[in-house]
Amino acid sequence: MRMIAMKDVVEIAAPERIRESSVQGLIAQRVLDVHFQPIVALDGATVYGHEALVRTPPGCLWSNPDALFAAARAQEISIELEIECVRIALERWASRAVSGKLFVNLSASALLAAIGMRGLQQTLELIRSLGVATASIVVELTEHEHVRDVEMLKTATAVLRRYGISMALDDFGDGRSSLRLWSELKPEIVKIDKYFTRDLATSGDKLQTMRALLQIADTFGSSLVAEGIETADELRVVRDLGIRFGQGYYLGRPEPTFSNSRADAAVALLSEHAEDVPAPQLLP
Ligand SMILES: [Ca+2]
Q1: Within 10 A of 264 (CB to CB), how many other CB atoms are there?
Q2: CA terminus-to-terminus distance, the chain
Q3: pLDDT tens digits, residue range 43-54?
Q4: pLDDT digits (tens, 9 = 90+) for 133-188
Q5: How far is the CA of 194 from the centre of ligand 1 (A)?
Q6: How far is the CA of 51 from the centre of ligand 1 (A)?
């Protein structure tokens, strides 16, 4: 007898859910899912971790995460949605027994809410019950340009670190700079916005910006992730600059499973010796 998988139940039920117009309803029905995109260590072409990215069910009113989060903001339920996404990510991660780091996204507001007394204990209990090591979790701080209370965020970061959880600044350079936050939080990781990766091979300005960011990272003890790597040229330049980690379609798309799905071409490129790669247009 064939067992009915949860996936089948969700698909059968989908026609009912396309009429769901409340984000709260989606959360209550537990129909949201996450996909995982690899973050690759560029020195050895190994998968360092995966970022969990929320996905809506087939036929949902909001077909992509941006639309879902816009609706959540309009319905004043953003924080609940963010925390639900972390819960789903932890459950999926634990059920697949993957090695490496799990990157989850949280805004400062959601993080502070989750750190609130009951919230943190509930989250820690969930992590413990799932058998996930807290040291494998990296919180990507989103929308950090809106942070007003840096001191409170520093306290929250200290609490997370006490449990072995690392911090990352997400999408750095998108919008107003959060350089002060970088200097105060000293996150283990800073993810550089894809704007700076795009056409990096042919943009002297972006190249100099990346070099400056590497110096800042060195000062504050952070490692960089170059986001949005989509071409061999971008990967080659990012690697040659000495940026430690990369993420983007060229290295692997978000997938429902963990396939260590780096493109063969990317692995081959990363295996080359840097000195063998001519890149004369990059020289100052
Ligand atoms: Ca992110």
Answers
A1: 7
A2: 67
A3: 888 889 999 999
A4: 999 999 999 987 777 788 989 998 998 999 999 999 999 987 666 888 999 999 99
A5: 11
A6: 7
In whole angstroms, what is the distance from residue 63 CA to residue 55 CA?
A: 8
Assign 236 to helix, strand or coil: helix
What is the rounded CA–CA span in Å between residue 242 and residue 207?
Answer: 12
Q: Is 85 exposed, middle or buried (0-12, 13-18, 19+ CB in 10 A)?
A: buried
Distance 22 CA to ligand 1 centre (A): 24
> What is the spatial distance between Cα 216 and Cα 238, in angstroms, rounded to a whole number?
16
91, two tokens:
């459950």
Cα of 142 to ligand 1 centre, how many Å?
A: 7
CA of 202 to the centre of ligand 1 (A): 26
pLDDT at position 95 over 50: yes
Q: Which two tokens stand for residue 240?
A: 């040659």
| Confidence (pTM) | 0.86
User: What distance in angstroms lies between residue 19's CA and the mean position of ligand 1's atoms?
Assistant: 29
Task: Report how far ligand 1's centroid is from the alpha carbon of 161 (Å).
Answer: 19
Residue bearing tokens 């020289």: 283
Q: What is the CATH number of domain 23-252?
A: 3.20.20.450
Q: Residue 239 in contact with residue 254, Cβ under 8 Å?
A: no
Domain spans in the chain, listed from the N-terminal domain onward: 23-252
Q: Residue 281 C-alpha to ligand 1 middle, in angstroms?
A: 31
125: its two tokens = 């209990």
Given pLDDT bands bounded at 50, 70 and 90, which one contains residue 121?
confident
